[in-house]
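User: Predict the structure for this protein chain, please.
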Amino acid sequence: MEQIKPIKITVGNEEYILRFTRKTMLKAEQEGFDIQSTAKPASNMYDLFYYALLADRPMMKKDAAMNLLDSIGGVLGVQDGFWTRLCELYQAPLNTLTEDGTPTAPQVTVEL
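Assistant: Here is the predicted structure, written as structure tokens:
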């Protein structure tokens, strides 16, 4: 399976990488984030952006993430394809599992 390239944002001399790990995906879901929810679309988009920052900036505060998104154009002002790629990145940690749900690491065996 092809790996999805993270999103890189540069503001001044500060670089931000947006990507997801299993850990950040789990944190998002534990905090109530649901990528398929349409009840609060703007909030959902800000949250998705925030959780994508946590993989490389675990101390990032939600209000700082919101300010960063606003500084690059806000929910509707970002580059075409941005939200599609961010959703793909969110799903990427799931793609590290095989279809039957077992880890893909070949050196690992699990016997029941």
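The mean pLDDT is 84.
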